[in-house]
Design brief:
695 residues, alpha/beta, Alkaline Phosphatase, subunit A, Rossmann fold, 2 domains, five-stranded parallel sheet, 29% helix, Sulfatase_N, SGNH_hydro_sf, hydrolase, Arylsulfatase A-like enzyme
Length: 695
């Protein structure tokens, strides 16, 4: 009996081991090569006749060449964000090379927006499923000390540029290996001795060698052939003296890229990995220069990088996977960078996370499906440099709007891939349908707000009489009444919509919030402060009270002020509505705890950290809003001033409502906190005068 059991156990273990081995070996290695600013027609397989790309042409012969694949955007950073997250530029975090807030770039101003901890990247998914993940080249989605660093976004190994503007040189003074700086002393002082692409190639080959016995994902966002147009040797173009220096360098850079791709493919062969590795090759956006009459890098397509026309968005795409992807074929099935995450997830056997905009196009890539289901898909782009541009494609039709105040253009790409014939006047129904789809595709972003031309940003204040006193007593003020001088008035309009006697509940239920919200647009700001009137009766008397806490609890009863049935929620529930509804329209919310009353306990100003101040902080934290602990900040000042002096100067008749002098203290505290947070797009507009008074 024991022998039989042992035999069964051994068989079970062998079966389990075989299953695990099959799961490991059936999953292909993935190499994703992303060129930088390579034009649609810069490869021989896509019609190039001047620049030679034999290795990439061989890749096309061994795989499938796609003619209608779209980059994530028309410039670098947002295109890469789309690639990593599977979300189009109406949803992804990084929607432009520069936004509102973020990291200070090389130009000295904020604007480098990193991926957030809440983002899920294709690298994270593959890493979690057992892939070794590596990236070599240009990242552009997170700087040091941000949540967007490669290691925080799913990469086991990284070598290259974090800052995309530093990647404009091929002779850098340093790059990064994971979180460590790697210096190139031979390039210091504008010397050009150490060409970075040589290091990128060496690192790529080493990664393949090191991980040949396990499934790996190798993302290679090389910087070639992005400007600066510089290379350590011009090769066969050294004697092309009738060309400009940039033309010679560009051609040599594309050929270097081709050479290095060939060496990488050879290394896969040498490690017996070619048949177990799917290789993707494409560009991050269209050609930076059309090079008309020399290379014609955009080919028959209109536009180039930074244009929403096909020349800015369409990219060459070659996919090779021997035995799985048809060799030597051309596919016109349209797909996009949004599809990379779901497609690679399917290849690796990973469940697709919620919130992606793409679809698994592996059946179309592998030739298993003719592509009919995806030809009617919708593709969407928005671009925020120099204004707000949009493009949307559904079926053969593509609509483009180059500014919010301009009309939509419409093209039939099936008949007119060069986008020469605008059909908008002839096809108004199609234009309206696509315009409605584009509007629905845009989700507001505080980093990339869409603002009306010439309009100042609004800072909307909602709260009670400690924000807007509203009485006839000229000695009394709420802090919102004296806040405007703390901002650059040429760029910011402070709107004090607070109302005396209101609680978080009554401000919401009386329709005051709906009225105030209607005046806000993307890029505006909201400051919320309630609590002073929330502790009263919930149904009796003035019926201003809310339930304590931050949860979903509710209570039904009859409102004494109206005689009607009413449902009352928690203080935190009402704050959450303000935060969520503001975010939904692209407004940045800032939750403030209530300013303290002039009440004292054991020689200190009474705090509400265990009640309203604490609940406000909880809501802000859980909802991802900014938080100012106005209760503690002001109370600390009150402690230093002393109770008697507060009555002499800061308060008049009661312990809640401040004099205008006292309101100045609170306003200055709000402004100082906003400057310290910082709030993207608002902090730089705060103006705090240096004064030598008690404030």
């Amino acid at each position: 009996m024991g022998i039989v059991l042992r035999h069964i156990t051994v068989l079970a273990c062998l079966a389990w081991a075989t299953t695990v081995l099959a799961q490991t070996t059936d999953r292909p290695n993935i190499v994703f090569i992303l060129a930088d600013d390579l034009g649609y027609a810069d490869l021989g397989s896509y019609g190039q006749t001047v620049i030679r790309t034999p290795n990439l042409d061989r890749l096309a012969e061994q795989g499938t060449r796609f003619t209608q694949v779209y980059a994530g955007s028309t410039v670098c950073a947002p295109s890469r964000s789309v690639l990593m997250t599977g979300q189009h530029t109406g949803h992804t975090t990084v929607r432009g090379n520069n936004g509102i807030g973020g990291v200070v770039g090389l130009g000295g101003a904020e604007g480098r927006i990193p991926l957030q901890a809440s983002d899920t990247t294709v690298a994270e998914l593959l890493q979690q499923s057992g892939y070794a993940t590596g990236m070599i080249g240009k990242w552009g989605l997170g700087e040091p000390a941000t949540e967007g660093l490669p290691a925080a976004q799913g990469f086991d190994y990284f070598f290259g540029f974090l800052n995309q503007r530093r990647a404009h040189t091929y002779f850098p003074e340093y790059v990064w290996r994971n979180n460590e700086r790697v210096d190139f002393p031979d390039n210091v002082g504008h010397r050009k001795q150490d060409y970075i692409q040589d290091h990128f190639l060496a690192e790529s080959l080493q990664f393949v060698d090191a991980h040949r016995k396990e499934p790996f994902f190798l993302y290679l966002p090389f910087t070639l052939p992005h400007d600066d147009y510089e290379i350590d040797t011009l090769g066969r173009f050294v004697d092309s003296l009738s060309w400009s220096p940039d033309e010679r360098a560009y051609a040599a850079m594309v050929e270097r890229l081709d050479r290095d791709v060939g060496l990488l493919l050879d290394r896969l062969e040498e490690n017996d990995l070619a048949d177990r590795t799917v290789v993707f090759f494409c560009s991050d956006n269209g050609a930076a220069q059309r090079w008309e009459g020399r290379f014609d890098s955009s080919g028959p397509l209109r536009g180039r990088k930074r244009d929403m026309y096909e020349g800015g968005l369409r990219t060459p795409m070659i996919v090779r996977y021997p035995g799985r992807v048809p060799a030597g074929t051309v596919s016109e099935v349209p797909w996009s960078f949004v599809d990379v995450l779901p497609t690679l997830s399917a290849l690796a056997g990973i469940n697709l996370p919620a919130g992606t905009d793409g679809t698994n196009v592996w059946p179309q890539i592998a030739g298993e499906d003719p592509g009919q289901p995806v030809t009617d898909r919708t593709f969407y782009w928005e671009f925020h440099e120099g204004g707000y541009q949009q493009a949307i494609r559904r079926g053969p039709y593509k609509a483009i709007r180059t500014a919010p105040d301009l009309d939509w253009e419409l093209y039939n790409l099936e008949d007119d891939p060069g986008e020469a014939n605008d059909l908008a006047v002839r096809e108004p129904t199609v234009v309206r349908e696509l315009a409605n789809l584009a509007e629905a595709a845009h989700r507001p972003s505080a980093f990339f707000p869409v603002r009306s031309k010439g309009r100042r940003s609004k800072v909307l204040l909602i709260g009670d009489s400690t924000v807007n006193n509203g009485s006839d007593d000229g000695d009394l003020c709420g802090w919102g009444e004296v806040l405007s001088p703390y901002f650059d008035s040429s760029a910011v309009e402070v709107v004090n919509a607070a109302r005396g006697g209101r609680s978080s509940k009554t401000y919401y239920k009386e329709g005051l919030w709906a009225e105030a919200l209607a005046g806000l647009e993307e890029g505006d700001f909201l400051l919320i402060q309630f609590g002073h009137n929330d502790g009263g009766p919930i149904f009796a008397g003035k019926a201003r009270g809310s339930l304590p806490g931050t949860g979903p609890e509710w209570q039904s009863g009859t409102d004494a002020t109206t005689g009607r049935p009413d449902t009352v929620r928690t203080y935190g529930w009402y704050l959450r509505q303000y935060v969520r509804q503001a975010k939904a329209v692209g407004v940045t919310p800032v939750v403030c705890s209530m300013v303290p009353r002039n009440r004292w306990e054991n020689g200190r100003t009474e705090r509400t950290a265990d009640s309203y101040a604490g609940w406000a902080k909880t809501v802000a934290t859980e909802e991802g809003a900014f938080f100012i602990d106005l209760n503690e900040r002001v109370a600390a000042v009150y402690d230093r001033v002393g109770e008697q002096e507060l009555w002499n100067t800061y308060f008049k008749d009661d312990h809640t409502h401040t004099t205008c002098y006292g309101a100045e203290l609170n306003a200055r505290t709000v402004a100082t906190a906003l400057a310290e947070l910082p709030v993207p797009g608002l902090t730089d507009l705060v103006r705090i005068p240096q004064v030598g008074d008690k404030r």
